[in-house]
Amino acid sequence: MFRFAQTNIQLFNQMYDLGYDEQEITAVKKSYELAMILFTGRFRGSGKTFIAHLVGTASILASVRSAPRIIAAGLLHAAYDSGDFGDNKQGLSPTRREYVRASVGTEVEEYIASYSELRWDQQVARSIYDKLDSLSQFEREVILIRLANELEDYLDLGILFCGIKKRTQAGYHSSGENIVGDIAQKLGFPDLADDWKMEFEKTAIASKQPRFESIGSRDFSFVAPPLSYKRLMDILAKRLNEVPNIRKD
């Protein structure tokens, strides 16, 4: 039995069992439909499909009874950083934001955009902890999505299958601090804090196992397009090379 969902079907069943109604689940389904488009062929540094990470993040948010709009945003939290909008770019842009709004609505998109603008490392996390009481409800909910993302990275020892840069990205292992759990506790989510502590401790113990001495070569996400896509690109490149250059004098 899964603790947190890793597939859309598990997530929708989880939400149903937790008492979310069909309309609320449908809102999350819209996010999943867009995620299928934006994250086709993308994998985490561990080799895990990116969409499984997105579903897992949404599942963690559902487990603490988050509002459907927050779960829907959690499912697309990395859209602007890692999603493929077909423009060969990264980050926020008016065109990208309008595309997401048209798919999932303005309210959900606002969370996704704010998440994308929230830089994160250990120093930032400490700063957020110190000023948490002064933040708006919306800002606190964006941080909650961030905490769910951090926890999801540690599920199944996932972070240990990544490269060294990813392992030390936030400095949790080197410092031994429990800042993520502290923020979750201060936000009013003790179960989330307990889950983080448990997964962190399991990871710290497992990191000493011989099987993790050989660190994975990939630090962050990457795209592995189907061979049929590569073949199509080769054909297009060949045809373009066959077109004579036309110069205007």
Write the layout of secondary structure elements.
Layout: H1 8-17, H2 22-38, E1 42-43, H3 50-63, H4 68-74, H5 79-82, H6 94-104, H7 106-117, H8 122-131, H9 137-154, H10 164-167, H11 172-175, H12 179-187, H13 190-206, E2 222-223, H14 227-242
Antiparallel strand pairs: 1-2
Helix pairs in contact: 1-2, 1-3, 2-4, 3-4, 3-9, 4-7, 4-9, 6-7, 7-9, 8-12, 9-12, 9-13, 12-13
Characterization of this structure:
The chain is mainly α. It has a single domain (8-242), classed as Hypothetical protein af1432, CATH 1.10.3210. Helix content is 61%, strand content 2%. The chain has helices at 8-17, 22-38, 50-63, 68-74, 79-82, 94-104, 106-117, 122-131, 137-154, 164-167, 172-175, 179-187, 190-206, 227-242, and strands at residues 42-43, 222-223. The protein has a two-stranded antiparallel ribbon with strand order 1-2. Helix 1 (8-17) runs parallel beside helix 3 (50-63).
Q: Strands of the biggest beta sheet: in what spatial order? A: 1-2
The amount of helix comes to: 55-70%
Number of helices: 14
- Give the radius of gyration: 20 Å
**Unreliable spans:** none
**What is the total number of structural domains?**
1
Q: Classify the beta-strand content into a percent band.
A: under 5%
Work out the number of β strands.
Answer: 2
- The first-to-last residue Cα distance is 70 Å
* CATH homology-level superfamily: Hypothetical protein af1432
Distinctive features:
mainly alpha, 2 strands, 61% helix, single chain, 2% strand, Hypothetical protein af1432, 249 residues, globular, 14 helices, two-stranded antiparallel ribbon
